[in-house]
Amino acid sequence: MKHKPSYLMVIASSCQMYSGTGTAIFDWMRYAKEDFQFSVLMDTLIDLNYKIVKGFCEKEDIKLYPSRSCLMAGCIDSGVRDIAEHLNKNYYDYVECISWANGSTNLSLLSCKNDSFKLVFTPHSQPIWTLHGHERYFMTSAVFSETLRASDFVFIDSPSESMLPEFQDVDLRSVHYIPLGVDTGVYKPGSSDFDAKQILCVCDCAEARKRVDALLAAFSLAYKRDPSLRLVLGGRGSDRLDIPSEIAHVVMGLGYVSQEALAELYQKSAIFVLLTDYEAFGLPIAEALCCGCPVLLNELDVLVEIFSGLPGVTFTSNKDLHKTAELMCKMADGKVDRRHIARASAASFSFDKTYGQKRSVLLGEQDIQKG
Predict the structure, then answer these.
(1) Of all helices (H) and strands (E), which one includes residue 109?
(2) What's the whole-model pTM score?
(3) Tell me, which fold does domain 6-180+351-363 have in CATH?
(4) Whole-angstrom Cα distance, residue 247 to residue 270?
(5) 300-351 tens-digit pLDDT
(6) Residue 131 contacts by C-beta under 8 Å, 6 or more apart in sequence?
(7) Which end of the chain is more exposed for a tag (fewer CB within 10 A), N or C?
C-alpha cells in the first residue's frame, strides 16, 4: 500500500471557517487526502468555527485534536497553545499554518520549528489596514514576515501578494502562486434559464471593506433606471442589514447560504457584483464564473491580475456609483454565452489545475510558475 506523508493543519478557531478561508482548507484536504494523511490541530475558543471543523473531520474521517487557545497581546487570532506539546508526541512530514493575521498561532508554531517537518504557509495575504482596529495588532506584520522566512513552502493566492512589504528578504524560490480552487462538480452552469433581473452579491456583509454600502447605493441608482431589478444578498450579516426604504421591497438578505443553494444562486442570477476595497483572492468570484454568471468587480490590482483575462468579467470603480449602476443595468440585460464563461473559468480554477499543482509542488513532482 502507498505510504501517505503525514500532514498536520494548524488552524486558529478565529479563522472564519464559514467563509472562503474555510472552503479553501476543506477543499484542499478533500482533494489531497488520497495523497496525504491529514490531521487537524485547532483551539476551541470560538465554538462556531470549531464545530464546523469538527463536523468536516467527522465526515471525512480526519483526526481532529482540540487545543487550548493562546490569546496574545498585539495579535488578533485566538491562538493554538498546544502546538509544541502535540509535535513532541506526534510525527508529521508537513505542518501547514493558515493566514497572515494569525500572529499568536504562527509564533507558537515558529517557536518549535525544526528540521523534522516541512513548514507550509498559506497566508491569504492582505495589507494590515484591512484589519478593523489594526493599530492594536502590532505583532501581526512582524510574525507574518518571520513565518514567510521560516517556511519551506509558501502558497500565495495572487502574484501581487509577493509585493507586500512583509515579503522583503524572503527567498522567492519557496513562494508559489496557485489560485484557490473551485469544486466544478458543484459550481457549474444550471440546467434552466437564469433570471435576467436578479443581481447577486455574496460576502461577509459584517466586514466594512466588502463595501455593501456602495453596493446598496449603486443598486438604488440602477433601480431608478430599471424598477424590475432585484438584489439578492448572501453571507454572514446579509439578513441583518439596514436597507434603504426605497429599495427594501426589492432587496433580499438570505444570511448564510449552503454550498448547494449558493451554486443555484449563481446559476439563476444575471450578474454577480462585488465592490470590495480589498480581496486576497475572492473565491465567490471564481465560483460565480464557473457557474457561467458574469461578474462586476471593483477594479483592484489583485482582481485584475487574477480575473481580467476571463470572459464575463467587467470592472468598475466603487467610487463611481453612477457608472456602476449603469453597468448593472447593461449587464443584466446583456446576452452572454454563460457556458463559455464557465468552461474558461473551470480551466483556470478546477481542483486539478489548482490543488493538483499544490500537491505536485509538495511532493516534488514538477515545477510551476513562481510568485
Answers:
(1) helix 103-110
(2) 0.93
(3) Rossmann fold (3.40.50)
(4) 18
(5) 999 999 999 999 999 999 999 999 999 999 999 878 999 999 999 999 999 9
(6) 76, 101, 137, 140
(7) N
